């Protein structure tokens, strides 16, 4: 890869002033720029969750519509990551990043001023498109700009923002909703976009790769259909029912499209959008599976923690989000330190250590959580989870980016992001279902003597039980206590399932994880057909 410098082709990007590799200060500026852009995207994934009641009141919308306003952003983001990542490799990473930031900023502003649910849905859809342009490019800029000795640490910072940024975004969003109102949620992403645009224009070098092959349009389209179908199942299955016609149809379409995508990519071989043969290698398969599981468990943890803080402990949304910050801070800090440990003991040992710690954190939460123990009964497990996820995410991300060649770094970054999105959707669906099932199985035996109306409401969930307590008369305290204790029982079911999944992942990583220090493809010799961007 080379940059936009007339008359020269080099193996490393040139600095913004025209001299060789960007110096240390420029590299820091580049890293800050792409992380600010990434933060805008990540914060918008979860930010609206804290404003669901306000949105329903403003638009007079049903809960189903509100969920679509939230989920359509993730759906469009996940579906377009691979095609747009590949396009970014071809047309140039800097212009793609600038385009993505512009689209995302316009969409965020439109959402903030949306007069109706329909306009809000359209704005969120457009925001997902912009986010799908931004996310893969930010990581591709890092892998193609930083020299080998600093690349791991830069990826660690990026990984920390990707992992912990959602929690930070939720905290800031909850604060804005409490202080000003839900429309102010979109001030944060717009402000981040302005900063990222300014820094990108001034500091981020341009680069593109040419392979001499036509763009894989069929692969791009089938990947979009597959991702939309499968993500729709995971998002809508818990709401509509896993055997509902729409759910089953979406599952069939998703699986069929995924099979068609794999078959087509095998046929295209080196000209494929994503060379699926590479999944036979340790790095790509191990990194992808690890991120899928780790992000799935992380998302499932949030499904459990928020109702615990709000409905069981009675905390506000802002305080509940603040309670997650210790885990987020540890995750982000350790992600930046993980490359040093990986260089010393190897990526496989580092990843396995992180997964072991995360598994221990889950077990701690499952074993000692209680209504009376409150926050202190879950804090040790949260801290162990934060350290463990920070250790495991960075080597896994490096494993994915190192598995694809230089000219496919946008695709590699997109694959990393798609894996995270699938893991998140899968974790929410499965651990959320286990929590609900455990709650329903536990609460019936605790509702003796409670009037049928409040009892039926309590069976729907712990938040419903708290809302129905006023109708239970002298049984109100019994009703609330029954719901809280049943929620803890459901929590334990979900967490022990997570422990089992993480234990299986440890065995897999020890057997199939990357054995040697990772060398990313941006350090390889410049291919003959790379051209200046």
In short:
The chain is mainly α. The protein has 18 helices and two strands.
Structural class of the secondary elements? Answer: mainly alpha
Give the strand order of the largest sheet, numbering strands 1, 2, ... along the chain: 1-2
| Spatial extent as radius of gyration | 23 Å
Instruction: Assign an overall shape.
Output: globular
Mean pLDDT: 83
Residue windows where pLDDT falls under 50 for at least 5 positions: 1-20, 520-533
How large is the count of helical segments? 18
Distance between the termini: 9 Å
The major sheet is characterized as:
2 strands, antiparallel
What proportion strand?
under 5%
What would you note in describing this structure?
The chain is mainly alpha-helical. It has 18 helices and two strands. The protein has helices at residues 24-46, 52-59, 63-91, 93-112, 117-145, 148-179, 187-203, 217-240, 245-268, 282-312, 317-323, 325-345, 347-368, 379-403, 409-443, 452-460, 462-468, 476-512, and strands at residues 2-3, 207-208. A two-stranded antiparallel sheet has the order 1-2. The protein is globular and about 75 Å long. The N and C termini lie close together (9 Å). Residues 1-20 and 520-533 have low confidence and may be disordered. Residues 30-515 form the Major facilitator superfamily (MFS) profile domain. Residues 1-20 are annotated as: Disordered. The chain crosses the membrane at residues 30-51, 66-84, 96-115, 121-142, 154-176, 182-202, 214-234, 246-264, 284-309, 315-337, 349-369, 494-511. This is MFS transporter. Pfam families: MFS_1.
